[in-house]
Amino acid sequence: MRNNFNGEKANLVLQDGSIHSGKSFGAKSCSSGEVVFNTGMVGYPESMTDPSYFGQILVLTFPLIGNYGVPKNELEDGLLKYFESSKIQVSGLIVADYSHEYSHWNANSSLSDWMNDNNIPGIYGIDTRALTKKLRSQGTMLGRIESESSPEDERRTMGIGGIACIASSNKPKKDFYDPNLSNVLPDVSVSEIKQYGSGKDSRKKIVLIDCGCKDNIVRSLIKRNLSVIRVPWNYDFNKISYDGLFISNGPGNPKMAKETIENIRIALSKEKPIFGICLGNQLLSLAAGADTYKLKFGHRSQNQPCIEIGTKRCYITSQNHGFAVNTQKLPSGWKPWFINANDNTNEGIMHKTKPFFSVQFHPEAAPGPVDTAFLFDKFADLVKNK
User: What is the pTM of this model?
Assistant: First the structure.
């Protein structure tokens, strides 16, 4: 146990000019991005490696973080068993109280050491309740982490996210990194085709568009005896043979993924089963002709209630998104499927007659409840019976 925390002063500077001071842990570096919060009590290794958080500084509302450390790097089906990607995806981590000592049967390192190895800065000792209330009232905003222990040349040049980052008590510059203003999918997608679960020739083949895919999505498909062909976000998959199409989660503004939207639009004419999750819900909607919009503060937690329209059934879901589908713009033949019980925003769409559907939440969980894992069964049945 290295316990590589330094406890030196660090600031979270928000775009509105406010400064939240605490102590640093993790890497001695600066970082910039969109500041968002998550209300989950556990699951920080999975959340921090979720590519949907790319370009974001994550605020955890649960008061104690780091107490069970970080698990080992074990492979299963060619994927890291306890993480959602091969590296930390968040730009920084903000917590109220960091546990310097950890204890868990599967722990391999401390949270601080793991963050240091991935060059990710963190701050503890911040009133995350007050910070979350600010984000809940004013909306998600940009910010940056300024650590006094950062190397002088880094503080004066570029921090994580490509933004100038100066550690001082002065008011921040107007420049902040906004991951929603550019296409960030190349930063989180695979660069070449990868295949999983292809040991049996009789297995149905699923093309998975990797827009920042969580690895538990791949695991969920493999467990249902499906062969997965994981392709880059802009790959023209319509030129290859497949039995079903899966559109993954991912970060950023869905309208930036123009190539992906066009490829999905072409796939709709083939009428093969299509299943989308999170960003996949937005991309499928855009390909169908609908519209999306930015939410004020998004949904990021493991306890979001979603109601299946036309029923009284409410599911507790894991979520991580900052955009939503405008169901008023859904074209003829499509209908909303789920809605969020808290704010009535869209949580899924489906075609009335064709095997196309998507959800805004994460049925694969990791972390979170598995109440909606049956949706993978629904997709697998459609593929196998097509």
Answer: 0.92
